[in-house]
Specification:
Blueprint (H helix, E strand, L loop, with lengths): L3 E7 L5 H12 L1 E5 L10 H4 L4 H6 L2 E2 L12 H17 L3 E5 L3 H8 L10 H14 L1 H11 L1 H6 L5 H14 L3 H4 L11 E8 L2 H18 L1 H10 L12 H8 L5 H24 L5 E4 H4 L1 H13 L1
The structure holds one RNA strand.
Length: 305
RNA sequence: GGGGAGAUGCCGGAGUAGUCAAACGGACCAGACUGUAAAUCUGGCGGCUUUUAGCCUACGAAGGUGCGAAUCCUUCUCUCCCCA
């Protein structure tokens, strides 16, 4: 018999964490956070990581375990989560992967193609080259190396252009050619993916409230402290860091910072929705209309069936 | 009461007779996405259609001039500022 892994996805502020805890309590589950920011220490308010009492209600994994200076990535997550899943199942519990980092979840479920990883030196070199000769120049270089990838990437999408070139140089193969050796947990387990949705307006309201709460809890201080620690490449991207930095640098008022923090969170939620919309294996549950209890029951039914 | 400035699309804001459904920015909507993904990037954005094109409705309101008006004239309404 194949073991089941439950995955809960959805936009930020959709109520994934709370929902996952409820579910975990019902089915003897343990929660694995698929969230690029909750993995970090020292940014609990910013990342809306589960608090003490929440953690007491069910066991959480991959939360608050990295220093802000450390790097996190879809590949690291995927490897760690894979181990956690195995372990949880061994102990007779049900793994519940919950989070909003679409790529991380995809990397876990479907796998990533084999790669030696990044080459920072090369990236810097390419970055500098783009600065000097323009993005189009790099794009043309990519066209020579991997025309297929070139067709899928927009010339302005510098990060992707660089990564695609990097793959060619580091792996000796094209991104396109590398593909299909990927292995993810879907090959080992019965993976059931559920998405939490609600009315867009409702979601935006929840985001507003959440940001207001963040300020009341003291994000400003948290980010101030975080900046002193010189956060690494991953942690520094958290929504709120850049926005508050503008305030610290006196570019705009705190009110303004809050406003753009809300806006950027909305935009993020929008991107998450676009990502998840494309994933046809997701079973969507409108927890606002349906109610959480019913949604939990629905999941229970579908995993025992 | 007197004088001045102004009213533009969801918002800010350019335009001051033809090439204007109206620059630019914001908000919003839609999309892409394989090792930095809370990142990076793209498209749309008055309505309708047979959507590399056409038609309709639009620049506070009502009239007017003119081949032609968001742009000029008249009156009205409203807003802001200064003097009383």
């Amino acid at each position: 018999m194949v073991d089941t892994v439950i995955v809960i996805v959805g936009a930020t502020a959709a109520g994934k964490s709370e929902f996952a805890i409820r579910l975990a309590q019902k089915i003897e589950g343990e929660i694995i956070s698929a969230d690029s920011m909750q993995a970090y220490k020292c940014m609990e308010i910013l990342s809306q990581a589960p608090t003490g009492p929440e953690k007491a209600r069910s066991r959480h994994h991959l939360i608050n375990f990295l220093k802000p200076t450390e790097v996190y990535s879809a590949a690291i997550f995927s490897a760690l989560a894979g181990k956690k899943i195995k372990n949880i199942i061994k102990r007779g519990k049900v793994p519940i992967v919950a989070g909003g980092s679409g790529l991380y979840i995809k990397a876990l479920i479907d796998g990533l193609f084999p790669s030696k990883g990044k080459n920072i030196k090369l990236r810097k070199k390419l970055q500098a080259l783009a600065g000097k000769k323009g993005r189009a120049f790099l794009y043309e270089r990519l066209r020579e190396k991997d025309p297929a990838a070139c067709g899928k990437i927009h010339p302005n999408d510098l990060k992707r252009v660089i990564r695609a070139i990097e793959i060619c140089e580091v792996e000796g193969k094209t991104k396109t050619g590398l593909a299909r050796e990927t292995r993810g947990i879907k090959d080992e387990y019965d993976v059931k993916v559920f998405g939490l949705t609600m009315d867009r307006k409702k979601l935006y309201e929840r985001i507003e409230k959440r940001v207001d709460l963040m300020f009341r809890k003291g994000v400003v201080k948290e980010v101030e402290r975080l900046l002193c620690m010189k956060p690494g490449i991953t942690a520094a991207q958290a929504i709120g860091v850049k926005q508050l930095q503008g305030y610290f640098n006196k570019q705009y008022s705190l009110e303004k910072a809050k406003e753009i923090l809300k806006r950027d969170t909305r935009r993020f939620a929008k991107r998450q929705l676009t990502w998840f919309k494309g994933d046809k294996q997701i079973v969507w549950l409108d927890i606002d209309k349906r109610g959480k209890k019913q949604a939990v029951n629905y999941i229970l039914k579908s995993i025992t069936a």
